[in-house]
Specification:
The chain is of the alpha+beta class. The chain has 2 helices and 8 strands.
């Protein structure tokens, strides 16, 4: 009788471990995001992912602080298959001392670990007939 109980307990443990590994990591929380555009240019931002598929972007570039108050912008995120994730929202990058480049950032990535997301990013300008800027990104979870 003890062998049967032990076997059932071990089977339950194996099933729980397999289920936990199949689940995707938690998106919610603060992320430091580093962007590198293919044509040159790097940017840093903070992504605050909320549990309901919403979030907030805050540009963290040093030049952005010279503009004065940094204004957050609304973002959204959605889960894809397996460990994939898409998040996007409006962003304004500083151009020199007085200009700005407004557009939409769209990130498409995968969880490499529960604390690291990596993938491709695209910036689509709102003004003019300019093409979008492709690049790559890495997002690292901010630990408390």
């Amino acid at each position: 009788m003890e062998t049967r109980s032990l076997t059932l307990w071990l089977l339950a443990q194996v099933c729980c471990v397999a289920l936990a590994q199949a689940q995707s990591p938690n998106v919610s929380g603060m992320w430091n995001v580093e962007i590198s555009f293919a044509a040159g240019g790097q940017h840093s931002l903070r992504f605050d992912a909320q549990p309901d598929g919403k979030g907030i972007f805050v540009l963290m570039d040093p030049i952005a602080k010279a503009w004065g108050e940094i204004k957050p912008s609304d973002a959204t995120w959605t889960r894809g298959e397996a460990k994939s994730l898409t998040f996007s929202g409006p962003m304004e990058f500083p151009l020199g001392n007085v200009g700005r480049d407004a557009g939409t950032l769209t990130f498409k990535g995968r969880f490499e670990t529960s604390d690291l997301i990596a993938g491709k990013v695209e910036f689509s300008p709102l003004v003019g007939q300019r093409p979008s800027k492709p690049g790559t990104f890495k997002a690292v979870r901010v630990k408390d």
